[in-house]
Structure formats: C-alpha cells, structure tokens
Design brief:
Length: 272
C-alpha cells in the first residue's frame, strides 16, 4: 500500500492555475448560491479553504462580513492581489465602481482548518464550498475539522457543506489532455492529467501536469491532488456527531432536493 499523502499537499503548486482551470469548469455557478445562504447570516461568516478568494470576495461585495482561511500561502497571496487590483489605492475598502457602495474586503488568515485559530462562538455561519472537506484524506482529519467548526460557530449558526459527488466515479486514465488555452500574460497552458482510484480508502488522486508555453520556451509544473469522498448519509452522520442537525440536503445550486443522481451534494446544518 502506498504511503498516504497529506490532503493539503499540492495546493501551493496549484495556485497559479486554480482560477484558470475553474473558469473553464465550475466557473461561478456556486457563488450566487452561497451569496443567498450567507445573506441570512446574523454575524460574521467563515469560509474554509478560501483559496484565491473565488467565493469570499463576491460574498464580501454582497455585504457579507467574511473571513477566509486557507493553509496555502500562494493561494492567499493571489486572494490579496485580487482585492488590491480592484482598487490599488485602498486594499481594505475598495469600491465596486464609480458611485457604488463601498464594501469591506474579506479578512484572510493562513491556518489549518483542523484547528481553527478563532475564539469559541466567533462566527454565525461557516461555509465549506466546492469539496474542501474532501481534501481531508483521513477520518481523524475530518473529525478534527468538524469539531473545530462546532467550536467556532455559535449555537443556532449554519454550517454549509458542498461536496463533489462524481470524484470517485472517474475512470482511471493516464496522460489525458483535459484543458488547453490562453492564460493571463500571454502564456498557453495545457493540462495533462492522470487519475488513480483507491476505493478501499475512498481516495481519488489527480496527477496534474501543466505545460506552460511562452514563445519558444516550455515549462512543466507537476503536482498531485488527493480527495476522500464520503456518501451523503456518511457525511450526515459525522456532521451530526459533531453537534449539528442537518436541516436540508440539496442536489444543485438552485435549491432542489438531493437524490443519488444529483450533480452536487449540499448539506445545510444547524449548530445545536
């Protein structure tokens, strides 16, 4: 049996390509959903695994008081740069456009979601978008994270979880070109991907090779991303064991009920 890597490994190397890839896959389909959910928050909101600010920044623009936490320094650097580029003069309170209402930019914290560095009851809502909990590759990692979330969220607060259901269903393959196109700065990127499944441990590993071409120069970037996927009933039991009551299980970003064929798995739970 191969040695199990930590779930956070590979994300630093992924940072330069994360937004490019997601613009071609997920895009912004989940952002309006999280804006609607977070609009009901009666206090500060925490996003787990905020990465480059893909979700946190639009929520802040919508008026949500939000903190994002991520372990990857390169990811967070891109989130900060994204805010700065929206208004170079004021990083903390940029404006959306001339005459538009100012907004408070998210606070970004580098930290481990398994041991959240916040006081008890600090947040009224915690969000775990786009499969971030699936990057917890050991049962003890998931348990520690759920317990940590339960500590920092106030009673009655909402915990929103988004899981990617199709990951365990990907067929194994090697060196397949998945995406190709232009990136900012004029480079041409090609994603060459291999997939490995470990059903016994519920693990899926994506071996990523990004080929970056600039004129006559070519550079390769290699890294692996590993995910552990539980079923909805399995995740529900673990969330409830941590002190939550699952109020809704949804099957898409429009709020439709979940079933086994759903494109996404969304759990909305209440801290009891």
């Amino acid at each position: 049996m191969t040695k199990l890597k930590e779930g956070w490994q590979g994300w630093d190397e992924y940072a330069p390509f994360y937004d490019w890839e997601n613009a071609r896959t997920l895009g912004r389909r989940d952002v309006p959903f999280w804006q609607r959910v977070a609009a009901d928050a009666e206090g500060a909101v925490l996003e787990l695994g905020c990465g480059t600010g893909r979700v946190s920044i639009p929520l802040a623009r919508a008026g949500v008081s939000i903190v994002g936490i991520d372990r990857s320094e390169p990811m967070l650097a891109r989130a900060v740069a994204r805010i700065a580029s929206s208004n170079p003069r004021t990083r903390r309170t940029p404006r959306t456009s001339a005459g538009a209402k100012s907004w408070k930019a998210p606070s970004f914290v580098r930290g481990d979601i398994r041991a959240l560095p916040f006081r008890t009851g600090r947040f009224s809502m915690v969000l775990a978008p786009y499969g971030i909990l699936q990057s917890l590759v050991r049962e003890r990692d998931l348990g520690a994270t759920l317990d940590s979330v339960a500590r920092v969220i106030g009673r009655g607060g909402t915990f929103g979880i988004d899981l990617v259901p199709d990951v365990p269903n990907w067929r194994e393959y090697s060196n397949r070109i998945q995406l190709a196109g232009r990136a900012r700065g004029g480079a041409h990127l090609t994603l060459v991907e291999s997939v490995r499944q470990d059903p016994g441990r519920r693990l899926t590993t994506f071996e990523q090779r990004y080929v970056e071409r600039r004129g006559r120069h070519t550079r390769e970037h290699r890294f692996d991303l590993t995910f552990r996927t539980l079923t909805v009933p399995q995740m529900t039991r673990r969330v409830e064991r941590a002190g939550f009551r699952v109020k809704a299980v949804l099957g898409d970003y429009r709020g439709r009920p979940w079933d086994a064929r759903a494109d996404v798995w969304i759990l909305l739970a209440e801290k009891v």
